[in-house]
Amino acid sequence: MNQANDSILVTGAAGFIGFHVSRLLCARGRRVVGVDNLNSFYDVTLKEARLARLEGLPGFSFTRLDITEAAALADLMAREKISHVVHLAAQAGVRHSLTHPFDYSKNNIEGFLSVLEACRANSVKHLVYASSSSIYGANGRQPFSEHDASVHPVSLYAATKRANELMAHTYSHLFALPATGLRFFTVYGPWGRPDMALFLFTRAILAGEPIDVFNHGEMQRDFTYIDDIAEGVVRVLDVVPGGDAAWDAMAPDPASSHAPWRIFNIGNNRPVELMRFVRAVEAATGKSAKINMKPLQPGDVPATLASVEDLAAATGFAPSMEVEEGVARFVAWYRDYYQV
After folding, report:
1. How far, in Å, CA of 258 to CA of 242, rounded?
2. Residue 77 pLDDT exceeds 90
3. Considering 55, 123, 217, 231, which has the largest number of Cβ atoms within 10 A of its Cβ?
4. Which residue, among 306, 234, 229, has the nearest Cα to 271 in the 3D structure?
5. Cα–Cα distance between 82 and 122 in angstroms, integer?
6. Contact 296, 215 (CB under 8 A)
């Protein structure tokens, strides 16, 4: 792909994944236009600190903008001559969706529609957007495969992410918009979100406070390090989907289409027991955890495991970070950032 004239819009650029993706794109010599509304879902100063590190990078510019402002988003893309979009802005969190459902309809449905319309209006060459492993929901078949139907979500957050995939397919079919959805599996690492398990565990253990371990510790997660996620996103950006000539309407493959639309998992493909994850935090902090064992939470699932054969075949890349090393890197960042 000729990248010389590419202009890449990254929504949610001040967020956890958006920050790392923007930084990697800039490091690869790409021009990045970041947008974010810097909302208060979690500590705004952390978002501002991420943004401060991006704003000094060659090729990066930033506009504060809410993606639900459809006209403003489309106008920005026209002014900046955006050729590609990496859409990472969203209302995240399964637990938050139990108590604040309308945040998800506004940001994840209305906001995504704004992105799709802006892509259509500006003839974007490729839209890459964040989906989630949560969409697999009640599906008990492991590893989770993009080729299995995903029609039983168990949280509103998951339902909105699945809706994004369906909405993108509609635009791919109607307007030939190339679109790729990426189902992220339990992302962790430096600059992570304060509401996520690793952040909560590290803060509590360092402070000598107890941590909550759900499903009495009988959980597995396909923990995926942030650098692996960013690498996967950047590689997929340059793999523009076309319609699958072998796609069969009588036996439709949920991962592809006659339209220029694809779905990929991005996961470490090595599930980790939750207690192993806790032990890794203990090792990195040098402190023992005080543990409150609790039942499985509503909207949660006991295990996740990604099939990543399709990602590897399309991009030549698959995540590989071992959880002990990834956790140690996070704890080192946490100690440095918070000076503890």
Report:
1. 8
2. yes
3. 231
4. 306
5. 7
6. yes
Alpha carbon distances (Å) from 250 to 69, 145, 182, 253, 256: 39, 20, 25, 9, 14
**243 residue type, one letter:** G
pLDDT score recorded for residue 318:
93
Q: Is 334 a catalytic residue?
A: no
Structure token digits, residue 167? 């909405």
Rg (CA), the chain: 19
248-288 tens-digit pLDDT: 999 999 999 999 999 999 999 888 999 999 999 999 999 99
Half-sphere exposure at residue 199, Cβ-oriented, CA atoms within 13 angstroms: 17
Q: Which amino acid is at 10?
A: V
pLDDT tens by residue, 277-329: 999 999 999 999 999 999 988 878 888 889 999 999 999 999 999 999 999 99
Q: For residues 252 and 134, is the Cβ–Cβ distance under 8 A?
A: no
Cis-peptide into 143, omega within 30 deg: yes
Burial 174-203 (b: 16+ CB within 10 A, else e): ebebbbbbbbbbbbbbbbbbeebbbbbbbe
Rounded Cα–Cα distance for residues 26 and 284 (Å): 30
